[in-house]
Design brief:
Layout: E1 4-10, E2 23-29, E3 38-46, H1 50-54, E4 75-82, E5 92-95, E6 102-105, E7 111-113, H2 129-141, E8 149-153, H3 158-169, E9 173-178, H4 181-189, E10 195-198, H5 207-214, E11 219-224, H6 228-234, E12 238-246, H7 262-271, E13 275-278, H8 288-301, E14 308-312, H9 317-325, E15 332-336
Parallel strand pairs: 8-9, 8-11, 9-10, 11-12, 12-13, 14-15
Antiparallel strand pairs: 1-2, 3-4, 3-6, 3-15, 4-5, 5-7
Helix pairs in contact: 2-3, 5-6
This protein binds NADP nicotinamide-adenine-dinucleotide phosphate (NAP).
């Protein structure tokens, strides 16, 4: 019997909000690794907001996924057979293996991970790309300092949850913005935010008024994960010479939600002399060793908390991804593709 694998292909490019029709589950023959390659079975697939950008043909910092090709994505996998001395059967690895049950790789951009050092899934979350993004954004991009006040949007998500905890550990006043009472309760009780503002809650005060009350001396740093209403609300509260680490703008990825008018945004940046710096984590991978040296022991000791939302099986990946874009995830969104041990 021919051995097979499964994958999720991009079936079509979405116009606006993506839907299940944009994805297709396919069964293919299991590939054979060539010289210098290995074959791995995927254990954990990471779902990340940037994947919405890869579904679109619009110009970006990375090439789009072609229609008919495997959806791109980071994953933890275990090597099954190997034709390269760099990787042995049984090794656990993290790399860009895509939305698939198996992958063949040359090992480029792939790193081995120690399954005994931390749960395998953390290589895609708190100790992986989102964690590095939080650490670089807070330290290198925002230059955050003790005694300052920070606002973090998507405060309980994969990136935001670590930003808040690292900022608190620095001695900052931390204000999170999150969607829903449960997320806000977790933000203050578990992640240690001083205040969490629920952007879904009905409140007679505007979000901007709530930020003003939570930040009596104004906001020094805004860690921007969302754009949309949180950005509009925080801009007037930024202190003179405040800094914005522009990490993401998920509210606008599908081009549906409205935006504050450019004169309001530029006006705030000019009047308050703000420094706004966008960053893409690919440019900062050289910071990964310093990040891991600081954060891995904190995760191991339990000083840094993290939370995961797990979808079961590759077929659930599209629904889990669509849910992530709407805030359905609570912490890092993952898909369990196969058990850790074969
Ligand atoms: N620059 C980089 O290199 C880089 C790297 C990684 C991630 N990012 C960006 O960082 C941001 C967070 O990524 P993540 O992986 O940590 O995702 P995440 O925060 O775990 O999940 C996304 C969250 O965004 C919030 N959200 C969704 N739609 C929203 C809307 N219309 N308005 C306000 N909030 C909304 C939801 O949280 P609530 O339910 O709390 O609203 C949702 O749970 C994304 O924008 C992502 O693209 C950038």
């Amino acid at each position: 019997m021919t051995q097979t694998m499964t994958r999720i292909a991009l079936a079509s490019r979405p116009e606006g909000k993506p839907g299940p029709e944009n994805f297709r589950l396919e069964t293919l023959p299991l590939p054979t690794p060539g010289p210098g390659e290995f074959l791995a079975r995927v254990v954990w697939l990471s779902l990340d907001p940037y994947m919405r950008g890869r579904m679109s043909a619009a110009k970006s910092y990375a090439k789009p996924v072609e229609v008919g090709a495997t959806m791109e994505g980071g994953a933890v996998a275990q090597v099954i057979t190997s034709n390269t001395p760099a990787f042995a059967p049984g090794d656990y690895v993290v790399g860009n293996f895509g939305w698939a049950s198996h992958a063949v790789s040359t090992g480029e951009g792939v790193q081995k991970i120690d399954p005994d050092a931390a749960p395998l899934s953390t290589a895609l979350g708190v100790l992986g790309m989102p964690g590095l993004t939080a650490w670089v954004g807070l330290n290198d991009i925002a230059g955050a300092k003790s005694g300052e006040t920070i606002v973090v949007s998507a405060a309980t998500g994969a990136v935001g949850s670590l930003v808040g905890q690292l900022a608190r550990a620095k001695g900052m006043r931390t204000i999170g913005i999150a969607g829903g009472a449960d997320k806000c309760a977790y933000a203050t009780a578990e992640l240690g935010y001083d205040v969490c503002l629920d952007h879904h809650a009905a409140d007679t005060r505007t979000l901007s008024q709530q930020i003003a009350e939570a930040a009596p001396t104004g906001v020094d740093v805004y860690f921007e994960n969302t754009g949309g209403k949180p950005l509009e609300a925080v801009l007037p509260r930024m202190n003179t010479h405040g800094r914005i680490a522009l990490c993401g703008m998920i509210a606008w990825y599908s081009g549906i939600e409205g935006a504050p008018p450019a004169p309001a945004v530029w006006g705030a940046i000019l009047r308050q002399r703000l420094r706004v710096q966008g960053f893409i984590i690919f440019d900062h991978f050289n910071r990964a060793p310093a990040f891991r040296a600081e954060v891995a022991p904190l995760v191991k000791s339990g000083a840094i908390r993290y939370r995961e939302t797990v979808a079961e099986g590759l077929a659930q990946a599209p629904a889990a991804f669509l849910s992530l874009l709407e805030g359905g995830n609570f912490g890092k969104q993952l898909v369990r593709i196969a058990p850790a041990r074969a």
